[in-house]
Amino acid sequence: MLTMTGVTCCFGDKAAVDDVSLTVSPGSFVGVIGRSGAGKSTLLRMINRLQTPTAGRIDFEGRDITALKGRALRAWRAECAMVFQQFNLVGRLDVLTNVMMGRLNHAGMLASLLGLWAEHDRAVVFSVLEQFEIGGLAAHRAETLSGGQQQRVAIARALVQEPRIILADEPTASLDPRNAIAVMEALRRINREYGISVICNLHSLDLARAYCGRLVGMAAGRVVFDGTPEDLTDAAARNLYGIEADEAIGAPGFAPRQATSGWQPPLAQLA
Fold it and tell me: What is the pLDDT of residue 105?
């Protein structure tokens, strides 16, 4: 259970996140929605501790995440993987090496620097790449891939960390509709097959309604909606998004595919 209690984050005299209290149950797929500047990214960065709260507390299964430092903080970031809008891959390195970086917490820094990855770690990574249909790209430099391929590489890197939570910060923002669907399918499969909690910031309400079991709406740093996709009417969405409503609600081309029945959890296969 992830619990945020009275969490606030200020930059100068401006509160990017203002007194937010939320509880996220294990295995949830939560979409955080709202217009640009609503505080969505800052909220996720505080959970991962890339940003330190100004006030309030974040707990995960009895641990005070806001108090973690050093090795304990690094361990938390392995448990709470982050997927970024701009992928955060090392462009000059190949896909295999980028994804192997997700195994650092298991292999250790020295082994990774020397390229002495254990066979088990390599097998886990290759299995994940195959499941995301990018196994054939293992030797390709990350910078040569399309945006959709790079985001799947980033999700694969997060998954091989064996996290408890995946935080996805606008993972489809720079993608076309087809690649956006592929990325959301990957996140949904991870959530359903592994039971890993996913908290995903999304600007597109169509994607949020199609893939998320719970929606948390933010405006001016505060939570102003918390419910199911069915609870969020178009009128409520227009109040939430303001002048960005037409862009968020009416985006064409987003239609979720049925999950592939033959998909198997790659880490479970190798357990």
Answer: 75
Q: How far is CA 240 from CA 24, 191, 245, in A?
A: 21, 27, 8
pLDDT of residue 270: 41
H or E segment at 197?
strand 197-202
Name the strand (E) or helix (H) holding 261. Answer: none
DSSP calls for 48-88: TTSS--SEEEEEETTEEGGG--HHHHHHHHHHEEEE-TT--
What tokens does 213 get?
Answer: 């079991």
What is the pLDDT averaged over residues 186-193? 92
DSSP letter at 198? E
Q: How far apart are CA 19 and CA 158, in angstroms?
A: 29
* CATH number listed for the domain at residues 2-269: 3.40.50.300
Helices (H), 91-243: 95-100, 104-107, 109-113, 119-131, 147-159, 177-194, 205-211, 234-241
Q: Whole-prediction pTM value? A: 0.86
